Amino acid sequence: MPYVTEDTLTDIALERWKDIPDPRLKEVMTSLVKHLHAFVRDIEPTQAEWATAIDFLTRTGKMSDDKRQEFILFSDVLGVSMLVDAINHRQSNGATPSTVEGPFHIPDAPVMGNGANMAANAPGIACFCIGKVQGLAGESVTGATLDLWQTDGEGFYEAQRPGIDGPWMRGIYRAQPDGSYLIRTVAPIAYTIPMDGTVGELMNRTNMSHMRPAHIHFAVNAPGYHGLVTHLFQAGDEWINDDAVYGVKEPLIVDFKKMPAGSKAPSGELMNEPFYVVSYDFVLERKAQAAAA
Ligand code: BEZ
Ligand code: FE
Known about the structure:
This protein is an alpha/beta fold. The chain is built from six helices and 13 strands. Residues 102, 104, 212, 215, 217 line the site of fe (iii) ion.
């Protein structure tokens, strides 16, 4: 083995990192060393720049805890979270595409009746989501649940309303036996990713958008089908082509149909104010049957 020079260092490090019994860890670590060395050779950082990078990562770690995950946000704005999601959800053609869960999901939302209002005390324009949960062949899916979370009409999630006695803007709906669902909420609005941390510091040195187009998060599950975590985005939103975390996939852009005051809502109610109707059928992929014994 030669002594270390700028030219030989990568090969020497790679040789050393091959000495790992776990084949997956070996694959990951040798690839990491290879790509990190290539990155450093590409940018040729000064000592001061490298110290700044280490300081950035250190502060990002210190900001992260069970309530705030600045490292995940860093992965989100780099497009890495959506890439990991895409690699892990290579759905069949026709299945509803997945997106990242994001930091605002709170488990154990209240269970709501079909058509119940999960935004009863929240500001915003009333919005009804209607549709079906079905399989790839168009079959009705029975026993589906839809777990929703979103901002209120002022752009805030429950976690961003510290004074609130939750739950706020979230609910779990059970689809009807034929797979149909009816949800009442308020329309979400576009909002900024958290900009008061290290990621915001970095974003502020770029011309990139830190906005997310208006969306509603859905986690859809049914027995015998692969679970789906996704968003529905409002067509025509100013930031639809500029989502800070790369979450927008074309089949997830939906028309929020504006209805005038005096119209009948999908619930049958006559509405005194204008409201939106969002129609969407979620398509789930069936799990492979276990091989017959
Ligand atoms: C969101 O839930 O909207 C979100 C996802 C990733 C980063 C920031 C916010
Ligand atoms: Fe969101």
